[in-house]
Design goal:
Radius of gyration: 19 Å
Structural class: mainly alpha
Number of helices: 1
Oligomer: single chain
Number of domains: 1
Helix content: 40-55%
Order of helices and strands: H
Strand content: under 5%
Distance between the termini: 66 Å
């Protein structure tokens, strides 16, 4: 018989792993943004692709989808 204690432990473990995975994704995103900002400060424009700043799409985790769109904003 499943006890309330086991159910509680199971839920806590799921929440822990979900939060740690989300934290890893946020850290990866922040690293990418940082590299883009450094490139923009150095060259005065954003890179045409992520490979220009040393990020390979296959370098990112296999089940994550990475999309990069360079947008032109005119005033």
């Amino acid at each position: 018989m499943i006890t309330i204690r086991k159910i509680f432990l199971f839920v806590v473990l799921i929440l822990f792993f979900a939060c740690s995975e989300e934290k890893k994704m946020i850290e990866k995103g922040n690293l990418i943004v940082s590299k883009i900002e450094n490139y923009r400060n150095k060259f005065g424009k954003v890179p045409d692709s992520l490979s220009v700043i040393g990020i390979k799409v296959k370098q990112i985790h296999n089940d994550e989808e990475l999309i990069f769109h360079k947008m032109l904003i005119t005033k």
